[in-house]
Amino acid sequence: MPRLWNFLDLSTPERRANPALGQTPTEFSPNEPSECLCALSDWGVIHVHGADAAAFLHSQLSNDIQSLDTANARLAAYCNAKGRALALLRVLRTDAGLLLFTHKALTDSLIRRLRMFVLRSKVTLDDVSEAIGVIGLVGAAARPPLQRLMGSLPEQVGGVQNADEIRLIRLDCVPDRFALVVPGRLLPELWARLANTLPVVSSEAWRLLEIRAGIPTITPATQEAFVPQMLNLEPLQGISYSKGCYPGQEVIARMHYLGKLKRRMYRLHTQTATAPAPGEIVRAGTGGQEAGTVVTAAQATPESCELLAVLRIELAEQNSLLLNGAPLQPLELPYSFDT
């Protein structure tokens, strides 16, 4: 766990002095409406600032960054020249620049790569993962303490409410799901207050909620494996086709205007006591033909898990699917696709 979250470590003096800080994650009940709190310690945070910060990111990411204001956050992909995703990010504008949220394991490599293209632009990129924490909150019980803290809540998905140095991003509407972006020095006290209101759950429980929302995650195991359309970034509004050039733009635009998408991301369920790792292979039941790749997975019950996987469309819709020999059942995603 990052040092920022050390106050949750059971062995620290802070935790021993204030048990509420380190409330043990409760068992997640996936079949009932959930109200919970989660330390999103696997979220890396990059601060991009300088006079050219927005223009620079606009030229690097799949979404429109120039028009982004402080009242909204956007999903975007950072791709290589072949249009394959190196990272998925949530982008948030602040008065001091822009914040990029991505999987923490990718933060260092992402900063190094982006710095290669700064050239003469007035842009600085800093890893602030140890200075800014993100708390996940879910459910109707989260609304009253958040309203007291923020004054009001963003009602649209992607909406942002700002209160001094704290920012609240609306992630979903059903259920209510938020990400609270907090300076590190305020994190222990704010966590203790919220932990007295909501049960604390593990990062795997949060990952399950992301899966049910159809939100993909790129990890080191799946870097450069998918173009953004395969990850459903079109219905998730993570691609702009009118913004101009960025790495991989030609491939991504050609897929949109001239090509036919042969793979896309599906939500699935399987009986297993161990969730599969990102990058594991899904096979078609007849003959064991490779059908696709696991993007992310999480336990839903001790005996079953849910996952997102990018699959060949013709195999996903015409064949039974297997993962490590166990059957996969399709589940609905909360968004639709253009036909």
TrEMBL record:
<dbReference type="GO" id="GO:0016740">
    <property type="term" value="F:transferase activity"/>
</dbReference>
<dbReference type="InterPro" id="IPR006222">
    <property type="entry name" value="GCVT_N"/>
</dbReference>
<keyword id="KW-0808">Transferase</keyword>
<dbReference type="InterPro" id="IPR045179">
    <property type="entry name" value="YgfZ/GcvT"/>
</dbReference>
<dbReference type="InterPro" id="IPR017703">
    <property type="entry name" value="YgfZ/GCV_T_CS"/>
</dbReference>
<dbReference type="GO" id="GO:0016226">
    <property type="term" value="P:iron-sulfur cluster assembly"/>
</dbReference>
<feature type="domain" description="GCVT N-terminal">
    <location>
        <begin position="38"/>
        <end position="151"/>
    </location>
</feature>
<dbReference type="InterPro" id="IPR029043">
    <property type="entry name" value="GcvT/YgfZ_C"/>
</dbReference>
<dbReference type="Pfam" id="PF01571">
    <property type="entry name" value="GCV_T"/>
</dbReference>
<protein>
    <submittedName>
        <fullName>Glycine cleavage T protein (Aminomethyl transferase)</fullName>
    </submittedName>
</protein>
